[in-house]
Amino acid sequence: MLGNKKKYIVNGNSGIRAQIQFADQKQEFNKRPTKIGRRSLSRSISQSSTDSYSSAASYTDSSDDETSPRDKQQKNSKGSSDFCVKNIKQAEFGRREIEIAEQEMPALMALRKRAQGEKPLAGAKIVGCTHITAQTAVLMETLGALGAQCRWAACNIYSTLNEVAAALAESGFPVFAWKGESEDDFWWCIDRCVNVEGWQPNMILDDGGDLTHWIYKKYPNMFKKIKGIVEESVTGVHRLYQLSKAGKLCVPAMNVNDSVTKQKFDNLYCCRESILDGLKRTTDMMFGGKQVVVCGYGEVGKGCCAALKAMGSIVYVTEIDPICALQACMDGFRLVKLNEVIRQVDIVITCTGNKNVVTREHLDRMKNSCIVCNMGHSNTEIDVASLRTPELTWERVRSQVDHVIWPDGKRIVLLAEGRLLNLSCSTVPTFVLSITATTQALALIELYNAPEGRYKQDVYLLPKKMDEYVASLHLPTFDAHLTELTDEQAKYLGLNKNGPFKPNYYRY
Amino acid sequence: MLGNKKKYIVNGNSGIRAQIQFADQKQEFNKRPTKIGRRSLSRSISQSSTDSYSSAASYTDSSDDETSPRDKQQKNSKGSSDFCVKNIKQAEFGRREIEIAEQEMPALMALRKRAQGEKPLAGAKIVGCTHITAQTAVLMETLGALGAQCRWAACNIYSTLNEVAAALAESGFPVFAWKGESEDDFWWCIDRCVNVEGWQPNMILDDGGDLTHWIYKKYPNMFKKIKGIVEESVTGVHRLYQLSKAGKLCVPAMNVNDSVTKQKFDNLYCCRESILDGLKRTTDMMFGGKQVVVCGYGEVGKGCCAALKAMGSIVYVTEIDPICALQACMDGFRLVKLNEVIRQVDIVITCTGNKNVVTREHLDRMKNSCIVCNMGHSNTEIDVASLRTPELTWERVRSQVDHVIWPDGKRIVLLAEGRLLNLSCSTVPTFVLSITATTQALALIELYNAPEGRYKQDVYLLPKKMDEYVASLHLPTFDAHLTELTDEQAKYLGLNKNGPFKPNYYRY
Amino acid sequence: MLGNKKKYIVNGNSGIRAQIQFADQKQEFNKRPTKIGRRSLSRSISQSSTDSYSSAASYTDSSDDETSPRDKQQKNSKGSSDFCVKNIKQAEFGRREIEIAEQEMPALMALRKRAQGEKPLAGAKIVGCTHITAQTAVLMETLGALGAQCRWAACNIYSTLNEVAAALAESGFPVFAWKGESEDDFWWCIDRCVNVEGWQPNMILDDGGDLTHWIYKKYPNMFKKIKGIVEESVTGVHRLYQLSKAGKLCVPAMNVNDSVTKQKFDNLYCCRESILDGLKRTTDMMFGGKQVVVCGYGEVGKGCCAALKAMGSIVYVTEIDPICALQACMDGFRLVKLNEVIRQVDIVITCTGNKNVVTREHLDRMKNSCIVCNMGHSNTEIDVASLRTPELTWERVRSQVDHVIWPDGKRIVLLAEGRLLNLSCSTVPTFVLSITATTQALALIELYNAPEGRYKQDVYLLPKKMDEYVASLHLPTFDAHLTELTDEQAKYLGLNKNGPFKPNYYRY
Amino acid sequence: MLGNKKKYIVNGNSGIRAQIQFADQKQEFNKRPTKIGRRSLSRSISQSSTDSYSSAASYTDSSDDETSPRDKQQKNSKGSSDFCVKNIKQAEFGRREIEIAEQEMPALMALRKRAQGEKPLAGAKIVGCTHITAQTAVLMETLGALGAQCRWAACNIYSTLNEVAAALAESGFPVFAWKGESEDDFWWCIDRCVNVEGWQPNMILDDGGDLTHWIYKKYPNMFKKIKGIVEESVTGVHRLYQLSKAGKLCVPAMNVNDSVTKQKFDNLYCCRESILDGLKRTTDMMFGGKQVVVCGYGEVGKGCCAALKAMGSIVYVTEIDPICALQACMDGFRLVKLNEVIRQVDIVITCTGNKNVVTREHLDRMKNSCIVCNMGHSNTEIDVASLRTPELTWERVRSQVDHVIWPDGKRIVLLAEGRLLNLSCSTVPTFVLSITATTQALALIELYNAPEGRYKQDVYLLPKKMDEYVASLHLPTFDAHLTELTDEQAKYLGLNKNGPFKPNYYRY
Description:
Four copies of one chain form a homotetramer.
Chain A: H1 25-31, H2 38-43, H3 47-54, H4 91-103, H5 106-114, E1 125-130, H6 134-145, E2 149-154, H7 162-170, E3 175-176, H8 183-194, E4 203-206, H9 210-218, E5 228-231, H10 234-245, E6 253-255, H11 260-283, E7 291-295, H12 299-310, E8 314-318, H13 322-330, E9 334-335, H14 338-341, E10 347-350, H15 360-365, E11 371-374, E12 393-398, E13 401-405, E14 411-415, H16 421-424, H17 430-449, E15 459-461, H18 464-474, H19 487-493
Parallel strand pairs in A: 1-2, 1-4, 2-3, 4-5, 5-6, 6-15, 7-8, 7-10, 8-9, 10-11, 11-14
Antiparallel strand pairs in A: 12-13, 13-14
Helix pairs in contact in A: 1-10, 4-6, 4-7, 5-6, 5-17, 6-17, 11-12, 17-18
């Protein structure tokens, strides 16, 4: 919960793949749910989300008809109509995207191969609610290859790639999702996944907790047959822990968000690349010689600092935690308070998971052309609201780039309106998506096959051995050759030759 | 001449600045001029250049009328019609772009400031032929502020920003340029700059040598009054040296391409950033753990290697020069022959300035999904022609990204069709444009004010002191504080306190 | 237990401080205690330990008399004779060493300052058994300043700095230790610390577990008054866990070896420096361009790899754990099996904590002049015994450097006979000693002041808040300024403003 | 001449190789010769030089008799007595050192091999005056293998390794040198090399210019037969240029000091390593988190900055040259004036080649424990003389380490009394010695074989092709594989396939 959390944007459309920039507003809203009105609010489309939506590149369906998919009669080539997508005819485009994604997700493909004999998910009936992208499609088709039946809805009203949804529908997956759903559509789609005659899910794969919430609310009896929940997001995990604390969690749940591979690889290594990518795509700035302050030296901050230092920036760090602060020192960064450097820096980057780290007072003192952006976990880190005052002029100079202009002419360059830079302005490496998807698949297998009693009605971390297995499935990509322990060595170390190789508290 | 050379693409339009991707085909053609047919060919628009042109982002003039600017009657607000641009009404948009560029070119602004008293270019009549961008506009208006009169044409039929041209015309500069000129337009524009009643240039600022060529061919007598030529491109410099060798150079010329600041900063530091940017924007790949071979360890290669190593790639280097090879070793790169690693690498990057560095044989042996791109000086490094054979299928997956597919399904990812990646797929940092523009301005001042006899009819490098001056003008950007020699120290070192500080052969 | 563990050598003597190279043999022996004969063996002085001992630099006592300290009658200036050191007259020299060390241990000095009012160790009677160095002296005198009474023996028969022991005795500390104790001396000294008329310890500070073992064996009743044990070494901690497992641990014990600051800072940051130092001091080799294989990518391996990569070496990594392996990949290292690169590398470094990682077979295949060394946790990693065969010639070329010569003339350069390089051939930064000593002091304070029931008869890690406190005490050294949470932020994060700031499972 | 210049110390003795720390006082003296008294001064042994001498490790001759070698009657095993060394009986020890050095100087060994057929130095009579070390011995024996006759003296009264000199004498080289010569001995030895019945040198290999000076002064007629001088040191080159300027240079001279391989590899890459080594060996400090200011960003400064940044130090740079200053900025260093950071830094390193860069005023303002050292070219950079005032106390805490203590107790840690740190406190990598020795050999071959008229009575740089050849001879050490140009490529580039590959002004 404290760890910095990144989410991703997705690629892909037909012909020319393009970058989708969808607002992370829904996720962020869910993060701190209010009791009343949450549902109605969560689907409202704010000005900013519309804006970022419209800046997405062209799609094959950009000139599509305006008919709601719910009103269309569509069948796939095998005659099934158990799906609801924008346009089933886009299936071929989507298939190509999926094929390209397959090439970049060797771990899932390896799982499929290993499952040719045994079907570890035979009999599993999985209902899923995630972003629907080419990478998700590879996951779903892998689950299918492992023996599972799946039904799927989207966890975000903007993020569905219609062509991919079409391709999945065409190949027989009951998918209920399209880009630009209304809130009502959103819940309707989820309901269509679970409320089926003669089919009842026994596994849940969720991203954000909305699917889980819906079943709790509408079909609590379903939990009797459900063997477990796999949840990927900070928000969803937070909600599961709350349920558990309240004694209301009635099936085992697997927290895949806090797995080692996710935390260490997603946050550190991906941010190391996406900070550069996000800044370049929005500002075309040169990094060499720039003075940068990075607020927060967790995994995300470490990644940002390492990348910018490597590119020749001079990096300052702020921290509240003395241990992380000492790490920053040893890594060669001056540890300062934001106030001490705010007048001189060229870039301010927040990675704290905290709120109001950059205040109006800081913004007032920044120098002309200072760039301000957020790599943390939500849109709270920069007090953007404080900039919406009459004396300041906002000028949108590019998609995701605003100049906020002070009366004296000073301009601050605000990226993504303070939302996540890496979500809004860069792409997420397939490598990360692959790690996450593989972890999800393994978590499903584990929960589905676990002997009675191994998991209780609680939230679990992935067993270390599975974390290690996820990692091992990604090594061939790098032509990396693992060493095996000899019997003698394993005995000396008191380890099983196949792992796990570290105690649970190992820090990596 | 051997040094790797990079060129740039330009940014900017009204409202939303966007990336222009124009073919570097003309430059490349000029590089090795054939005797016959060169002129007609150089303006022909090939399939590929049209393609990359069409991928440029939207412009205010995208919905413009189709009338040729040559057929339009336009006046600026002061009543002048001594210009020819697409649409004078776009002047306001262009002005904003220029103002933004001014913020990023403090060195030129400092030159303006210092010239408030003396006008070092008073009386200068400069005819220019360069890319017409916001940055060029800042240069031109600086030359104006220094006392010069200017007339300007474009050195590339695609690269003109119409809004900027309009803004320049509006503020009184006779500009003859628009995006999408025909070859006939191209020469007509140049001619309109030089063939003027009652005005004769006494300085030339050229980029590529076409303007110089035109005057040589049509108005050789003009050289009597011309004090010098300032040339920026590899190509143009090559042509000047040829003229000089042939005894036909009749005025002094300044080679600004080989200045220290250009060579060391442009090539090393900019490529360090643009290789990452270019690869990310085209492929969204993750750098960590990737195996890369970089062909050539000159400044460009050094920059590419440093960046990729810093991002966690494993980098191999090929070299022909044992000194550069030994540098690669000491910098921590395995020095190999391309054949030795071609089967295992994920990325091949050429930075040699040579031809056929990557041959069909290499391409045949690459592994699936290998990315191939060129950071060198022209489109010769990768033998792309060898890929245009019937058994291979080309698939355009994105702008600037082709999959070339072998009969067995292997795909090679070819970027920018083997043309310069940094020109085609990334942006050029304003910092570099600023260094180049400042160097051009100082070269003009030097040639214009040089006492009789300092420069003969030859090609000169910028005096070291001017190189140092260019550098010093850029230090304030970094809030960098230079130390001054004491009298005692200057005496001890045998130096003038104001420089130059190094012998000419110093290598930096 | 798996984590790589480093120990240190110490500096200092009078006038010219010098490097002590004592064998880590005792520690290593203790690591895997055999049931019988352990005691007699553990003090025997092997050929190798004598050798490294004799290579230590000159000391003020080198020309000392040969009388055993046990046979001497000595008094300090206050008339006390409750100590046994080599020569009380060396006290002044030792005092200067302590004063210099004080300058480098600001955290302990800060603890003294804060304790001026309250004495958190008032009433504490601490018996200690550690290396006796200037840094330990600073710790002991800090404990004294905090209110404790101390009695001290050495945990190693070679490592005592006689001058420092003298200085401590002079200022009133009952110290029983000298360099070159016999095994009988060793236990006699320990016994003199605990077996005192009218004084009984209530706290134990141990390094290796010998003191604890002695009390268990000889004076088990003492544990009734003992509030806790603080243990610093891998070995000692291992023994405590065994006691605990066997239900024989009768007081709470604090494992300071696995504290975050120790693990992350000592292993990663110190090894990053000591690998370079150790290799340089022994071989004067150049790092640039060298091919190196590092076995193991834990914290120690990460430090070694980062340093060598930064110095221009080409680094390969071997790993058994797929997660660490994937980290190596993402950090830019080729992951290989040792066999794959053994013929080509210039240096082999082990950091695994495992045994027989480098076998005779590997050694046979190494190229001429290959350097082999161990940075792991004991002398097991390289199968040195396999090199003691008739056909191989050993040639000692420097202290700690052997050439092992094959019949064909091939030479392998073996450092420190396969014992720890950083212990034998480099120095340990005071920074690390400071972190460890501060952690020990805080652990003593915590155990001594803990309310009844907080700690049971078990082995505990230092509370995270104390880890954070240790870190915070070291920040002033770096002029580092920590940011404080606002009330609003603390509330938002659900944290106490003073920490702890992270959940226990946080990985840093 | 401006370039920073490093010199080296040498390793090796019999049995246990050890580090020699000889004063660079003589070199430094020569640098700025005064007119009167120079000779008598240059040989006087100051307190400090004695000190560093005495700190050298033990030698086989440490217990030698005190008889001057000039008074001894010695013969080698072949009966020759045409030499003068300390003790011919040490030859065997020396031979072993030479054999070890041969393993590390593959380039010279390759030259020997290639010379098996042709003897490019057949007929050459070379008189040499250099440091006499194992590496020099490899050079001399290589010259012999190439056909030359050699006679040799030492260029420094301290640096001779007696065992090596003995080994050379034993194998028939007339060597006149021992460690601890008096000034009179020094010139006597040189004279014995050149003033020989029936033998007259035709080539000079000098280091520092003393040999050249002696011949000029005593035997000017010898120059009639001398084909050229090869000079390696800054000082010697400086003197040659002065001779040339004065029209007094009567033979061609080759300046090997300014060759690319020497400048770029010696200064940049070696300093990158020796700065760390020198600081560690003297102070055992930890680099992580330390604030460092490096004065001067030439090659030496670049090396120091890169190394310290890589080890986690925070590095500031001072510069007088705006181009180097801009490089520092782009490389990620804050460019400051020394005054701005002097109060906060932990380390001050000078690399300027200038004088009084660190003044008493700076020293007064440094914080307690600040370390001050010099990596530049002489002992002028730090105003050490200003510290020799009554109110300051000097305390020698280790060899090469002084604490200078202010009245308020502040201590400054001065290394090597302000002389070159890398000369005094670290070792020089054999790699550099190998490059230099190979360059010297090739320069001798070039001058000796050059056709009449190629070289005039002037000072020359090594032809680029030879620089490239030196580099190529070192590539096999790194198992580096150079790519060869195809005929087509060579033609395209206008290059000879065998080089040279770059224009003379190329900066690398």
